[in-house]
């Protein structure tokens, strides 16, 4: 029987094969070759695209270079979403590799946050973890940690060190037995067809009657449209880490095993492809 | 004549003492098993007298003596009691005034307490020694530390239950010796070392004053002063126990009480010289009842959730424990629990049916109440003499002696069950109330908890509540309902006294459960007297992992069995989809570059290394592990040992992918481990390293182990084909066989096999090729493998969290007492100068005394005292002695003329607690086990499993399948004599070895007749006693007591018993024949290039269908190995084998005894 530990590993080591091409409008000295890379699903774009930047800078004049930003089929990619979420949201059910266009000018200030250095990502990542722990444990666990533990979480993500990360993250996934789960499940539901960035509300893993809440329960309350009506064709896919867990999957289990390193369960609701 | 008398007396005394001892032990077991009160430890022909305590429905306390024939009412019980809890020497009770009372039985041994104070003096040239001290000195009269001012007249009796035995007097003795100097002891200064004699530099002196007080309130109820001055919260339950938690003299006990509002109190300081204790400690947590066992079992039921709680951390040093742990395990057949609990309540109710029925009608209640009030009136008269009550408080001002008010007799019948029902019944009502109420109490509150405080209940409970004609009727008597009820009935008893009670409420317990079926259980009563829990044992009851904090890691909770959740569709779906995702998103793109470069990563530390050159010794070294990612993304590493060689800095290194095994070598002085590579295995000389602490060693071992597994791409549980082995320390290792392990002519060399450790502690392990693995501990406990990995020191990600359980093992440590005879004194412990130590190990080379002998490693703790071992081979006399002509020689159990020396063996039990993927298979202890080696057709096919019990019975396990490897029950197979070894071959051929050393073949074993029909006796090889057998596909191998390995000739399907034994090898300790007829052994005396090893894993080479005996041995890991099983490896090697470059083709022939004899065959 497969162990639940294997799920953690699979989630961590999820990779998206990606082809980076330079935007046609960029002025280059010679033609830029596309660049192929395996992107970790759980990481953030600026953390893993140094090589891409170096590759394209070789063919560009220094004066033409502004802050790099990435775009997929016209959608600027928000660096502060995990890579896997961006892919599931925008590029599920498309042909691999994922084709991302690289831009060095006309930064879309209205759509994207600036990311000047890795410390900005670190701050964003750590604040997500703290927010998640506030929901899960009233911040008790994250506040009890030492500075070096926080650093270890970040370094684990940055250097793709599963063991290093989970040695600490383990503590964030604990809860008192008698409670049967976290206080609230840190989750975010993303949808393609909405101006709202995502849905995030308070939701407990266990009902007042003591029943375990499932993924279906969560959606019923947060996003009923995502659930198929009886006898109707499934209109939406509910995707987490590129898979569609069954709606009866306990939410607490999902939170413990399919959360991103930022401790949030990122759920993408996307239209079912019509082939 | 007098001398003789004295001798006789001494002998008699000794007899009594030893008798006392055995009796005492016996009592201890008896009381733990049956929770009967301990019996006085006095030898006597008749059973010692003890008392059973009881309270009748009128609150009268009675005791029944084990020597008596009638209940005797407690003499001075002018008041009624609600509850009593008794220890051997006393009885505690909650009286109707809601105070706790103690009744200490009169005994020949008075309860005394020694008060002491020190008189301090300093010398000065004028007065000599006087009580004129320096300003910086201590008080003239102080406690032993000098910090507390303690003049003699400051000492007060703690309560009126005490009296002084006499006046203060000076302790004339100093450290057990008489001083003859008015008890003074001298020192240079305070505080310093005091001596009996005055010296020239003695500047200060002190002496001790003593006074005894005696507990006088014997055989009477003495009130324990209450600490609750502010809020009246009467006690509602009390329980004492815990007297076996430590060795303290009788009198020490743990007393726990809970109040009506659920507050839990622990009575501090109850011991042999202070029977009433020194005060109450308030505990966190709200409980409705509490139960204390004989030892550290403290159990309670939560008042809010009605869950059963276990007090964790109760130890002899911390008697009140640390924290409440909820016991959250499902009940068997949990779906039908609601009716079950209703039934149990019902039956419990029947127990009290006498009063329950009587009160079931409102009219009865009223009349009872009236009757009660008149009774009460009369009682007040009788109890108007307060002096008859022994009362405690010294602070009379705030603790006035209360005249115990008589209560309505009915009141005392308030049974806990009915109290509970009062909470259950109105559950619906209270829920309605709550949902109607606007305020949500607290975020965390669960509206179903049934936490209905008694006062609220009083309102919702009225006798007018409808009683269904078919429903069982329940009556309730509750303390706090009193007022409401009183108001209704108008029977005013004592309006001032809130705790008086008169109400009787009747209501129904509906048969249909008011709660949902998946509601957590609501408990009514718990008793833990028979449940023994070691303080360091991890119970599966709590859904917690290794850490003891209240936060539990729940990446997966420990489950008692395969829970439905683990086989649930959603889980399967996630596993499947993740592997699909890997295929879809990664498999075709492996050639893509990784976004994050894997950098080199180094861990460094200091250790000690057992250096390779002579003289061998431990030297300090720096140790480093460098890890990096290989070109294909696989992790690899190198370990370095930096040392100094004649002032020169040098280093030694090993590639992590060459390491074949990491072996912990714990002993009492070093936390060391051994690292083997194929080269080191050939040398029989591993790299031995020692860490400063055990924790450090485990950190390194866990890290190195993960690193080794990573470099070989191994993770998760062992495969079904895995080869299992056990070291002489009980450590368990597995190795994944390569496809070419049994290949011909070039098998994988044995010393290249990679072994990794699995948590747990075993002596024997047996497996088969569908993944069923059984183990037997040193204490003969049977264990079944759960399918997990890790445990032991493998924490976190190197270990699965489900399928890991606590494992306990017990073994004996032996030492020998040696004596020599001389003509004057007979046998004495005075040996010849050339003799061995008079207390030694078996070899006589090492001195081993009872005091200096330590458990084998820090993981082991002593659990018994030294006892003489009579079960030594060769027999012993009545005192355990074995006699011989000289050391060392063969010993026999009786003295002859030629015997000049004797020895006897002492044994002491020690216990190890660890974790591993093993679950106990109770209850029969085993000495051997065997599983049909070949693959079953499906996972539900029954797999034959045979075993030998500890006593030598042959057993057949029923219901063993791949899904239920533990099976269901034992079937006993009759034999004429006890057996010791058994093995079943691939064709269900069962062979066994009897204790007399002969072999037996079991006829007609088949799937239809799994136990066969009869035994065929097979004579052993001449003059040899066989000890172990292993049957492969067709081969039958045995090992005899002299270490010879035998092959059974002439075994054919038509004549399965074979014809004769053929000698194969000597120096063999154990053999394992597998489903491919492969033969592996544990061999002794294997010579390596650097060292000789005992207990080495060896593989028979050249075994072919037509040559089942093979040709020679290949040597693997060792020494120190004890057991191996290859019966899981059924992988047929590839027919055509192309030797790869990495393989060494010709096997080095080593010059060993075992090899030469093997070649000779």
Protein described:
- The complex is a heterodimer of chains A (275) and B (1161).
- Chain A has helices at residues 4-12, 45-48, 50-57, 83-91, 118-137, 140-144, 147-158, 162-172, 215-222, 251-257; strands at 15-22, 35-40, 69-72, 75-76, 98-103, 174-176, 187-191, 236-239, 265-271.
- Chain A is α/β, with parallel strands linked by helices and 275 residues long.
- In chain A, strands 2-1-5-3-4 form a 5-stranded mixed sheet, with helices on one face. In chain A, strands 7-9-8 form a 3-stranded mixed sheet, covered by helices on one side.
- In chain A, a hairpin with a 2-residue loop joins β3 (69-72) and β4 (75-76).
- In chain A, α7 packs across α8.
- The longest helix of chain A has 20 residues, at 118-137.
- In chain A, 43% of the residues are buried.
- The mean pLDDT of chain A is 89.
- Chain B is built from 13 helices and 67 strands.
- In chain B, strands 7, 8, 9, 10, 11, 14 and 15 form a 7-stranded antiparallel sheet that branches. Chain B has a 7-stranded antiparallel sheet with strand order 17-18-19-20-21-22-23, with no helix packed on it.
- β6 (174-176) of chain A pairs antiparallel with β26 (551-553) of chain B, so a sheet runs across the interface.
- Chain A: One of its GO terms (biological process) is piecemeal microautophagy of the nucleus.
- Chain A: One of its GO terms (cellular component) is autophagosome.
- Chain A: Belongs to the ATG5 family.
């Amino acid at each position: 029987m497969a162990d639940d530990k294997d799920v953690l590993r699979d989630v961590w080591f999820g990779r998206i094969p990606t082809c980076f091409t330079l935007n046609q409008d960029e002025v280059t000295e010679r033609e830029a070759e596309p660049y192929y890379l395996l992107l970790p699903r759980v990481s953030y774009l600026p953390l893993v695209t140094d090589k891409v930047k170096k590759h394209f800078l070789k063919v560009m004049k220094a004066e033409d270079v502004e802050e790099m930003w990435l775009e997929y089929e016209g959608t600027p990619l928000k660096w502060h979403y995990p890579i896997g979420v961006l892919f599931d949201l925008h590029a599920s059910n498309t042909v691999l590799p994922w084709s991302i266009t690289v831009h060095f000018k006309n930064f879309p200030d209205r759509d994207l946050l600036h990311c000047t250095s890795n410390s900005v990502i670190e701050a964003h990542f750590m604040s997500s973890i703290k927010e998640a722990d506030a929901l899960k444990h009233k911040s008790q666990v994250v506040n009890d940690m030492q500075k070096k533990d926080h650093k270890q979480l970040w370094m684990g993500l940055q250097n793709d060190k599963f063991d290093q990360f989970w040695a600490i993250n383990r503590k964030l996934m604990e809860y008192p037995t008698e409670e049967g789960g976290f206080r609230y499940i840190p989750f975010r539901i993303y949808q393609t067809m909405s101006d709202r960035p995502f849905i995030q509300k308070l939701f407990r893993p266990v009902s007042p009657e003591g029943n375990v809440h499932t993924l279906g329960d969560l959606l019923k309350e947060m996003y009923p449209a995502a659930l198929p009506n009886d006898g109707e064709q499934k209109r939406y896919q509910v995707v987490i880490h590129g898979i569609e867990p069954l709606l009866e999957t306990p939410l607490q289990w999902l939170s413990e095993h399919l959360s991103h390193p930022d401790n949030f369960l990122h759920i993408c609701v996307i239209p079912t492809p019509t082939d | 004549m007098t001398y003789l008398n004295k001798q006789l007396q001494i002998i008699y005394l000794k007899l009594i003492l030893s008798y006392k001892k055995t009796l005492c032990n016996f009592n201890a077991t008896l009381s733990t098993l049956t929770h009967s009160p301990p019996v006085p430890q006095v030898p006597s022909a008749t059973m010692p007298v003890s008392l059973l305590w009881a309270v009748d429905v009128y609150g009268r306390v009675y005791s029944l003596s084990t020597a008596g024939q009638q209940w005797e009412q407690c003499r001075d019980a002018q008041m009624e009691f609600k509850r009593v809890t008794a220890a051997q020497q006393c009885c505690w009770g909650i009286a109707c005034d809601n105070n706790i009372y103690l009744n200490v039985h009169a005994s020949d041994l008075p309860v005394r307490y020694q008060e002491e104070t020190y008189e301090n003096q300093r010398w000065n040239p004028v007065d000599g020694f006087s009580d004129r001290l320096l300003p910086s000195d201590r008080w003239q009269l102080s406690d032993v530390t000098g910090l507390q001012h303690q003049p003699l007249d400051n000492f007060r009796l703690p309560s009126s239950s005490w009296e002084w035995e006499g006046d203060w007097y000076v302790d004339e003795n100093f450290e057990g010796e008489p001083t003859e100097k008015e008890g003074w002891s001298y020192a240079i200064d305070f505080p310093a070392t005091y001596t009996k004699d005055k010296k020239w530099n003695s500047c200060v002196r002190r002496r001790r004053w003593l006074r005894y007080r005696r507990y006088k309130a014997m055989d009477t109820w003495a009130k324990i002063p209450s600490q609750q001055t502010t809020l009246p919260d009467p006690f509602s339950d009390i329980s004492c126990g815990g007297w076996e938690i430590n060795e303290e003299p009788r009198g020490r006990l743990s007393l726990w009480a809970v109040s009506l509002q659920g507050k839990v109190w622990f009575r501090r300081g109850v011991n042999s010289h202070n029977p009433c204790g020194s005060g109450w400690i308030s505990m966190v947590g709200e409980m409705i009842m509490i139960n204390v066992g004989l030892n550290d079992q403290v159990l309670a039921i939560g008042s809010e959730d009605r869950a059963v709680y276990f007090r964790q951390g109760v130890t002899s040093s911390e008697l009140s424990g640390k924290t409440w742990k909820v016991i959250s395990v499902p009940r068997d057949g949990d779906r039908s629990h609601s009716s079950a609990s209703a039934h149990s309540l019902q039956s419990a109710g029947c127990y009290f049916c006498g009063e329950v029925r009587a009160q079931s009608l409102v009219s009865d209640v009223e009349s009872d109440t009236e009757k009660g009030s008149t009774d009460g009136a009369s009682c007040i008269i009788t109890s108007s003499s307060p002096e008859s009550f022994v009362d405690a408080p010294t602070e009379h001002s705030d603790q006035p002696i209360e005249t115990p008010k008589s209560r309505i007799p009915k009141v005392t019948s308030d049974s806990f069950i009915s109290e509970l029902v009062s909470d259950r019944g109105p559950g619906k009502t209270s829920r309605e109330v709550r949902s109607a109420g606007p305020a949500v109490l607290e975020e965390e509150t669960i509206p179903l908890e049934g936490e209905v405080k008694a006062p609220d209940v009083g309102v919702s409970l009225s006798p007018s509540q409808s009683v269904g004609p078919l429903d069982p009727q329940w009556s309730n008597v509750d303390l706090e309902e009193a007022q409401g009820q009183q108001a209704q009935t108008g029977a005013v008893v004592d309006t001032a006294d809130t705790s008086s009670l008169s109400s009787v409420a009747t209501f129904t317990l509906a048969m249909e459960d008011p709660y949902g079926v998946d509601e957590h259980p609501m408990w009514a009563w718990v008793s833990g007297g028979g449940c023994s829990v070691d303080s360091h044992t991890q119970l599966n009851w709590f859904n917690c992992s290794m850490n003891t904090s209240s936060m539990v890691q729940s990446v997966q909770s420990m489950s008692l069995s395969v829970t439905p959740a683990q086989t649930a569709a959603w889980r399967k779906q996630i596993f499947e989809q993740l592997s699909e995702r890997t295929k879809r998103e990664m498999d075709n793109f492996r050639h893509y570059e990784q976004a994050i470069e894997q950098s080199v990563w180094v861990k460094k530390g200091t250790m000690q290394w057992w250096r390779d050159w002579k003289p061998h010794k431990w030297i300090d070294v720096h140790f480093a592990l460098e890890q990096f990612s290989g070109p294909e993304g696989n992790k690899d590493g190198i370990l370095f040992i930096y040392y100094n060689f004649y002032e020169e800095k040098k280093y030694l290194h090993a590639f992590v992918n060459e390491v074949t095994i990491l072996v912990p070598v714990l002993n009492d002085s070093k936390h060391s481990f051994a690292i083997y590579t194929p080269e080191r295995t050939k040398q029989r000389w591993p790299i031995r390293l020692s860490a400063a602490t055990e924790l450090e060693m485990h950190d390194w071992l866990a890290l190195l182990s993960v690193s080794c597994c990573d470099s070989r791409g191994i993770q998760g549980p062992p495969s079904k084909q895995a080869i299992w082995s056990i070291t002489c320390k009980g450590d368990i290792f597995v190795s994944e066989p390569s496809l070419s392990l049994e290949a011909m002519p070039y098998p994988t060399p044995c010393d290249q096999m990679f072994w990794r450790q699995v948590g747990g502690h075993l002596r024997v392990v047996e497996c088969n090729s569908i993944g069923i693995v059984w183990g037997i501990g040193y204490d003969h406990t049977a264990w079944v493998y759960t399918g997990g990995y890790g445990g032991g020191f493998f924490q976190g990600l190197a270990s699965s969290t489900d399928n890991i359980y606590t494992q306990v093992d017990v073994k004996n440590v032996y030492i020998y007492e040696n004596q020599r005879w001389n003509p004057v004194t007979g046998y004495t412990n005075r040996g010849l100068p050339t003799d061995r130590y008079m207390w030694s190990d078996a070899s006589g080379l090492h001195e081993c005394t009872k005091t200096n002998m330590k458990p084998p490693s820090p993981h082991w703790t002593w659990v018994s005292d030294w006892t003489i071992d009579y079960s030594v081979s060769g027999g012993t006399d009545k005192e355990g002695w074995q006699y011989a002509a000289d050391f060392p020689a063969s010993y026999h159990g009786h003295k002859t003329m030629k015997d000049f020396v004797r020895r006897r063996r002492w044994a002491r039990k020690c216990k190890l607690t660890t974790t591993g993927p093993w679950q106990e298979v109770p209850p029969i202890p085993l000495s051997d086990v065997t599983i049909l080696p070949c693959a079953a057709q499906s996972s539900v096919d029954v797999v034959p499993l045979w075993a030998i019990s500890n006593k030598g019975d042959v057993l057949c396990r029923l219901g063993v399948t791949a899904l239920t490897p533990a099976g269901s029950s034992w079937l006993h197979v009759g034999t004429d004599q006890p057996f010791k070894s058994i093995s079943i071959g691939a064709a269900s051929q069962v062979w066994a070895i009897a204790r007399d050393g002969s072999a037996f073949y079991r006829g007609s074993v088949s799937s239809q007749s799994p136990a066969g029909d009869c035994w065929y006796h097979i004579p052993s090889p001449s003059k040899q006693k066989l000890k172990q057998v292993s049957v492969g596909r067709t081969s039958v191998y045995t090992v005899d007591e002299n270490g010879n390995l035998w092959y059974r000739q002439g075994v054919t399907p038509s004549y399965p018993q074979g014809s004769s034994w053929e000698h194969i090898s000597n120096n063999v300790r154990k053999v394992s024949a597998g489903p491919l007829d492969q033969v592996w052994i544990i061999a002794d005396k294997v010579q390596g290039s650097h060292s000789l090893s005992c207990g080495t894993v060896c593989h028979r080479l050249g075994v072919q269908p037509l040559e089942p005996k093979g040709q020679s041995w290949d040597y693997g890991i060792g020494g120190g190995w004890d057991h191996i099983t290859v019966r899981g490896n059924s992988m047929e090697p590839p027919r055509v084998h192309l030797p790869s470059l990495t393989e060494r083709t010709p096997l080095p022939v080593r010059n060993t005894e075992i090899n030469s004899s093997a070649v000779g065959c």
